[in-house]
Design brief:
By secondary structure, the chain is α+β, with helices and mostly antiparallel strands. The chain is 29% helix and 30% strand.
C-alpha cells in the first residue's frame, strides 16, 4: 500500500488554509510537499510521481486544472469535467436545486432572449472552472457585460461560453459541506442574509441529512464539496452547487478531519 503525500500549493490564496493543512499533515503523520505555481505560466512545477507515495493535491483552481491536464485524472485529484456541471445537477437533483428554474445556454443565446431588461437574474458558468464568480444582475447589465467581453476579447469567456441563468432567490443561510464517500465529514456556515457568517457549530442535523440523502441519488465524485441554502417561506434546504474538494475555501470547516478522512479514503481505495 502506498503512503499518503499531500502536494500543497505554497503560494495559495489562503495562507490560513494552507498552514492548517500542513499542521494536520504533521499531526496525523502524513508527508507533504510544497510547490509554487508560477502566475501566468501554463506549466506545473516538478511534482514527483512514484511507487512509494499516493499524491493528494490542494491549491488553486489553476493548479488543479494543470494537474488534471498533465496527470490524466490522478487518484488524488477529485474532479471530472463531465460530472461537475450545473446542467448535470439539474438533470439529476431537479427540484432539490436552488437553480431548478434556471436554464443552461451559451452566453450569446442568453443575451438574445426576450427577457425584461430590469429582471434580476443569477448567472454563473455551467462548469466548475471559475471563469467568473456567480452574480445577480439586471438583464440589461448582463447584456452590457457580454458586449464588453466581446469588444475587449476577454480571455476564456466568449459567445460560446456555457452559462446558467435563472431567477434570483432570497437566501437566509448558506453552508459548505465536505463529502467523502457519501458522508459529510466537515461543515461550516459561511453566509447569513447575504452577510458573512462563519460557524462550525451552527450545523443543523436536518441540513446534513439532506446532503447525505442527495448523495444517495448522485455524486459528481466520491470526494467533493456541496454548498447548501436555506430559503423560502417553508425554510427548505436546496443545493446551490458542488465543487472540487482540492481547491475549496474551508471557512470554519474542520481541516484536520478533511485531511484525515480524505487520506483514509485514498489509502483504502
Amino acid at each position: 500500500m502506498k503512503k499518503i503525500r499531500w502536494v500543497i500549493q505554497e503560494n495559495n490564496y489562503s495562507v490560513k488554509d494552507r498552514n492548517a493543512i500542513i499542521d494536520a499533515c504533521n499531526e496525523l503523520g502524513y508527508a507533504y510537499l510544497l510547490v509554487e505555481i508560477i502566475p501566468f505560466s501554463n506549466e506545473l512545477p516538478h511534482i514527483p510521481l512514484d511507487d512509494e507515495y499516493e499524491n493528494i493535491y490542494y491549491g488553486s483552481t489553476t493548479m488543479m486544472e494543470r494537474t488534471y491536464r498533465d496527470f490524466k485524472q490522478p487518484k488524488g485529484l477529485f474532479f471530472d469535467q463531465d460530472t461537475f456541471l450545473m446542467s448535470r445537477y439539474l438533470e439529476t437533483w431537479g427540484q432539490h436545486m436552488l437553480s431548478s428554474e434556471a436554464k443552461v445556454s451559451t452566453f450569446e443565446q442568453l443575451v438574445h432572449q426576450e427577457i425584461p431588461l430590469d429582471k434580476m437574474l443569477f448567472i454563473r458558468p455551467n462548469d466548475d472552472s471559475k471563469l467568473f464568480e456567480g452574480k445577480v444582475l439586471e438583464f440589461r447589465k448582463i447584456k452590457e457585460w457580454y458586449q464588453n467581453i466581446i469588444e475587449q476579447k476577454v480571455e476564456k469567456i466568449g459567445t460560446d461560453t456555457i452559462v446558467l441563468a435563472g431567477p434570483a432567490y432570497q437566501i437566509h443561510k448558506e453552508w459548505r459541506n465536505i463529502v467523502v464517500d457519501g458522508k459529510v465529514v466537515a461543515s461550516s456556515s459561511y453566509r447569513k442574509d447575504f452577510e458573512p457568517y462563519f460557524s462550525a457549530t451552527d450545523i443543523p442535523d436536518r441540513m446534513v441529512e439532506f446532503v447525505e440523502k442527495r448523495c444517495k441519488e448522485f455524486m459528481p465524485h466520491a470526494i467533493f464539496a456541496m454548498d447548501i441554502a436555506l430559503c423560502g417561506t417553508e425554510h427548505e434546504y436546496y443545493i446551490i452547487e458542488c465543487g472540487c474538494a482540492n481547491s475549496i475555501g474551508f471557512y470554519e470547516c474542520d481541516i484536520k478531519e478533511y485531511v484525515r478522512s480524505i487520506s483514509a479514503f485514498i489509502s483504502n481505495s
